[in-house]
Amino acid sequence: MSVPGLTAAPSRRTAVVWWRLPAALWWRSLPFRVIASVLVASLVVLVLSGFLLMQQATSGVMKSKQEVAENEARQAVNRAQQTLNNANLTGDDGTVDTLLYDLANGFANRGGGTSQYEVVVLARSQTLTAGQVAVDSIPSELVKQVNESNDLLITPTEVHWRNGQPAEPGLAAGSALTLPGVGRYQMYLIFPLTQEVTTLRVLRNAVVTTGAILIVLLTLIAALVSRQVVTPVRAARQAAESLASGNLHDRMQVRGTDDLARLAVSMNYMASELQKQINTLEELSAVQQRFVSDVSHELRTPLTTVRMAAEVLHDAREDFDPIAARSTELLQNELDRFESLLSDLLEISRFDAGAAELALSAVDLRGVVARVVEANAALAASNRTTVVVHATGEAIAEVDVRRIERILRNLLVNAIEHAETNPIEILIAGDEEAVAVAVRDHGVGFQASQAKQVFHRFWRADPARARTVGGTGLGLSISMEDANLHGGWLTAWGRPGQGAQFRLTLPRTAGTILQSSPLPMVPRDYLGPSDPVRAEAAADAALPGPTVGAPETLVLGGPLATSGSDQGRGGS
């Protein structure tokens, strides 16, 4: 049994697709726009021209026919009146009717010249007709006017036939005849427009046929012209796409000296200049990478020597005065930071050189997160910050453990630095395709427009803010490179005064292309129905996700109460 509500939907979709197809072609295809514009413009011009031509032709043919019909009718009426004037009749109706009938037949037989007509005479006792024309072919208004006037009157009419032929347009001319001593009679001449209608029909068919041929020819011409114009433009587009894909040696063919040829010359010149600039930048980048790598390696040896001396001084600091002992501790801390900076620079140089590789193994990210949190527990305690981990089930994935630990360590240290003693939450979730870890702090935050800049090298949201945990300024940049190396996502969200959230999403199986994340990008605690500014973020975070069980909660650094809202998860 069919359901009307269900069968109507495909029809609506089909109609929508049918209407969208020309619109899509209009915006995507220049030849289609040119051909369609020429076709529509030509169609409008031809329709208007054909209409005006038919109007003029119809008016001319009808005017000529009316003039001829009027002349013949006047001649026929004059001859009939002269015949009646010469007739010596009494008032006998039979004799008069015989004369009028013979007169009508005589005129009808003469109507085979340039304009054939039928004759109708209205006598006092009967209507006399010659031929097959019906009396109702004479308009009643014309009969009334002829009865009141002595002039020849002519008007359009519809000719009806007594033998059942289809009615056709015609002209009716009428005038009064006076029989001396007897009275007035009315004579009508009916002129069928058969030949004129046939002529106009042939002319209309010729106009339509000619217009159709012109439409086809103009469409072909427009297609040819658009092809001549679009082909060089497409070649320019293909050359630009080839340049964008890295084929810096591709060039356009230059043919002729017209505007399109000059376009090709300009494109080739631009490609040459771009190639020079890109080659120069690549050389500078290679020099810069070698410089950073060489400097980092060269600094290793003196750094080792300085560290050995600093460790000797640090071990003997109890024998120094307080100022010297404090200086020894500061020297040791700065050497640790300097060594971290050199390590990060070497890692960055490996990423830039494309030499970074993965050592994959299947691990549960819950254990990785636990190790990272335990390793930074002292740092969190020194900043009076509580770290809470919410895990919603297993999160096993094929990853490079060393790199993932580095990502999570950088995210956690960054959160501790900016949390301003507020609690930090780490969320762990997974679905069939991916696993995700989100680090949420409630500190200073940053502008929404800075979400991508936070991963730039040595970037700070507040340049005047000093580093409190000894970071190098390269941690988030290296984390982004590590995430990309896994085929994963590392994204950031922040609002001033509302804190920030960094979300790491990784495929469960190496090489899988991510489609979504098990955790939302916008923190759930930020989404509030009473705040209209958050409506857009709430809509993005409201996408459905798989149902998860109660989270496993690990609290480090101090107690933190959890609510039921922390147990769900949404899609990104």
Automatic annotation (TrEMBL):
Residues 294-510 form the Histidine kinase domain. InterPro entries: HAMP_dom (IPR003660), HATPase_C_sf (IPR036890), HATPase_dom (IPR003594), His_kinase_dom (IPR005467), HisK_dim/P_dom (IPR003661), HisK_dim/P_sf (IPR036097), MtrAB_MtrB (IPR047669), Sig_transdc_His_kin-like_C (IPR004358). It comes from the Bacteria. The chain crosses the membrane at residues 34-54, 206-225. GO terms for cellular component: plasma membrane. It is a multi-pass membrane protein. Signal peptide: none annotated. Residues 542-572 are annotated as: Disordered. It catalyses: ATP + protein L-histidine = ADP + protein N-phospho-L-histidine. Residues 227-279 form the HAMP domain. Its EC number is 2.7.13.3. Keywords: ATP-binding, Cell membrane, Kinase, Membrane, Nucleotide-binding, Phosphoprotein, Transferase, Transmembrane, Transmembrane helix, Two-component regulatory system. One of its GO terms (molecular function) is phosphorelay sensor kinase activity. This is Sensor histidine kinase MtrB.
